[in-house]
Design a protein that fits this description.
Chain lengths: 417, 88
């Protein structure tokens, strides 16, 4: 069986009629007991499984997914990876993720198509340029690459922007993270799943958690639609459904679930070779390798678990996109969808032990979870393996809400998420 | 565009409304622990399915309670604020 992906194995399999490929991951029946359980087969859960095995040698691990892996927000996001954050705590966590993304394809032996095509955040007023300069300074002090762009710089990078004198959102400049970019979302999920499976992790799909096993005040495992499964440590990475699981475990989280929509156009020839974000129109655009324009915007304004999205926000996103790029006026939209994201008051993640000992949290990424997948996995794996915080995850513990030590990135990074 | 029922103005477009929070999240009286205060400020039930919420109709400026399903978005009714929702 061919296990390793390379040009040579592709060539050999081509000659052999593609008959020797091994399945990317195993689908075993669940055992009754593991050293650790991970709930949620999205990017964060799968990355946790991989780093548990790789960094900590913990391979007797079950990853439980109620649907199919990568079928939630990992398959519904707009694939942007960046680390241009204001607060040092955030720069550390997103910087870790970004640095792992850069070498992820080689690390996983799976092409996640990480493309450092640069990210441009537009600035639409003179006053906002002052804020942008402060933001760029803070990001540079955090050790993250970031530059302040003039109008001429913006014109060089996105010549198709609406620079006309009567533009509703004139450009005064921008902030530019040259090392930001995009990655192939499904490949991230599949790559982690394949690598974790090869290290011994059991990936179990169509296995929904119905309850927690709580004995002596500790979480001792889970009851699932495929029977009870025990472990002394359980981690959950279920994004918008975190509150639902928390209720089963007997505690509440500072999470509100909202739908976040995105859409793609029909594929066209290469027209935009970077990621462009406009905080004022609330829209961001990039172009996929297939040629589709990938368009995202703000959250729906209605708390929701319905993975569809409402019309008013979609309308606003399309209107904003046309304001920015009138050239796209004739484009046909191909697909629209929504994922349910876990929004917390300070727009920063929650990582740490839950109020139920033995159950560990990775949630609260809101609209920005995809970019953080390698870090979320590394840090939850560290917690599950050692029972203690990694230095990078400590500030993001749930206790910050009672202590008042919030990490308010909604204000800090200037982008609502 | 979905229509929401304002108890004062009748059915209006959803974009005229703003979400105010979960009904029944009452402000604790007197000296409370940091945990209790954080609970009031930040912790939420965030239910999947039937939910009762406080909304404001921005056009008339009135707050009211609305019963809604957070999965299929169906609205089952709305009412003026009672004692349960705002602790009056």
């Amino acid at each position: 069986m061919t296990r390793h992906y390379s040009a040579l194995s592709l060539f050999k399999e081509g000659i052999a009629g593609q008959t020797g490929w091994e399945k990317a991951w195993r689908s075993p029946d669940p055992k009754r007991r593991y050293d650790a359980i991970i709930i949620g087969g999205g990017g964060h859960g799968l990355a946790t499984a991989y780093y548990l095995a790789k960094n900590h040698g913990v391979t007797n691990v079950a990853l439980l997914e109620k649907g199919w892996i990568g079928g939630g927000n990992t398959g519904r996001n707009t694939t942007v990876v960046r680390s241009n954050y204001f607060y040092p705590e955030s720069a550390a966590i997103y910087g870790l993720a970004h640095s792992l993304y850069k070498t992820l394809s080689k690390d996983l032996n799976y092409n996640v198509m990480f493309s450092a095509r640069g990210i441009l955040t537009l600035v639409h007023s003179e006053a906002a340029m002052e804020t942008a300069a402060r933001s760029v300074n803070a990001i540079q002090v955090n050790g993250i690459d970031c530059e302040l762009f003039s109008v001429e710089d913006v014109r060089r990078v996105v010549p198709i922007y609406n620079f006309s004198p009567d533009a509703r959102y004139p450009v005064y400049g921008g902030t530019w993270q040259p090392s930001g970019g995009t990655a192939r979302h499904d490949a991230v999920a599949w790559g982690y799943a394949r690598a974790a499976s090869r290290l011994g992790v059991d990936i179990i799909q169509n296995c929904e958690i119905t309850d927690f096993i709580i004995e002596g005040g500790r979480c001792r495992g889970v009851v699932t639609t495929r029977g009870a499964i025990r472990a002394e440590r359980t981690g959950m990475a279920v994004a918008g459904h975190s509150s639902v699981l928390a209720a089963k475990a007997g505690f509440r989280l500072p999470v509100n679930s909202y739908a976040l929509q995105a859409c793609v156009s029909e594929p066209v020839k290469p027209i935009i070779d970077t990621v462009v974000i406009s905080p004022d129109t609330g829209v961001y655009v990039s172009q996929s390798d297939k040629g589709e324009l990938v368009i995202g915007g703000a959250l729906d304004r209605i708390p929701s678990y319905g993975q569809r999205g409402n019309l008013p926000v979609l309308e606003g996103v399309i209107a904003g996109m046309l304001e920015m790029f009138p050239i796209f006026g004739q484009l046909k939209m191909m697909r629209q969808w929504a994922g349910i994201v876990d929004v917390v008051p300070d727009s920063s993640p929650i990582i740490g032990e839950s109020p139920l000992p033995g159950l560990f949290l990775n949630c609260g990424w809101g609209t920005g979870g995809f970019k953080a997948i390698p870090a979320g996995g590394t840090l939850l794996a560290h917690l599950l393996a050692t029972g203690r915080h990694h230095d990078i995850s400590r500030p993001f513990d749930l206790d910050r809400f009672a202590r008042g030590r919030l990490i308010d990135e909604a204000a800090g990074s200037g982008i609502a998420h | 565009m979905q229509l929401f029922p304002c108890p004062f103005c009748g059915p209006r477009e959803e974009s005229e409304f703003h979400y105010g929070g979960e009904a029944g999240n009452l402000r604790p009286d007197g000296e409370v622990t940091a945990e209790r205060w954080a609970g009031y400020l930040h912790m939420r039930d965030n239910p999947k399915g039937p939910t009762r919420e406080i909304w404001v109709h921005m056009t008339c400026g009135e707050f009211f309670a609305m019963s809604r399903d957070s999965v299929n978005h169906k609205v089952s009714g709305s009412s003026v604020l009672g004692d349960v929702e705002h602790g009056a």
